[in-house]
């Protein structure tokens, strides 16, 4: 293909149009996975100029995707503004079939009562247990099982990862693809905690430290070796 000045102008325009969108998505993902940050921090971590970061922040504010909170200054000076996702910002990360899920849960409750909901949750837990136990079979160390579990959860859309903290591991889930279902029936969350304990085995103690449904921005599970 022969490129004319018009072709190059069009290509340049297309690239210019694509950059803000890509930067916006990266900024939203940064706030989703790592929490609130200042404009200067966002610029540094996303490797963009301070002016570009400021423009992106203003754009996201105008669209209602982020909100600001004043942080206490570490020394003299005015409080620094930090940015975090708003409810609309969190909604940019899909909750699989949200409306249909809530409707189905309501219908199950109406038709079969709480006993029917308990059977549904137990069935889901049994299917996940079989899948997780098979995937973790043969892994002798607790570390390898935690990492495999995080990989399984990540593949299911939970944005899961593992961080080492002292002698413990943190299983972090930055997203919940079944959040609507969990809000309608918290048995799903109780079931998952029990499941993690079973899959990781008696060698592990698993406690939920942060919970999305309790107002945290993510779910965090502390995994430690049993005494």
Structural overview:
By secondary structure, this protein is an alpha+beta fold. It has 2 domains: 5-91, Winged helix-like DNA-binding domain superfamily/Winged helix DNA-binding domain (Arc Repressor Mutant, subunit A); 98-225, Muramoyl-pentapeptide Carboxypeptidase, domain 2, CATH 3.30.1380. Helix content is 58%, strand content 18%. The protein contains 8 helices and 7 strands; from the N terminus they run αβααββαααββααββ. The protein is globular, with a radius of gyration of 22 Å. The protein starts with a helix and ends with a strand. 19% of the residues are buried. Mean pLDDT is 82; it is low at 1-20. Residues 1-22 are annotated as: Disordered. This is Transcriptional regulator.
Alpha-carbon Rg, integer: 22 Å
Number of strands: 7
Strand order of the largest sheet: 4-5-7-6
Q: Give the proportion of residues in helices.
A: 55-70%
Main β-sheet: number of strands, strand sense, barrel status?
Answer: 4 strands, antiparallel
How large is the count of helical segments? Answer: 8
CATH architecture designation of the largest domain: 2-Layer Sandwich
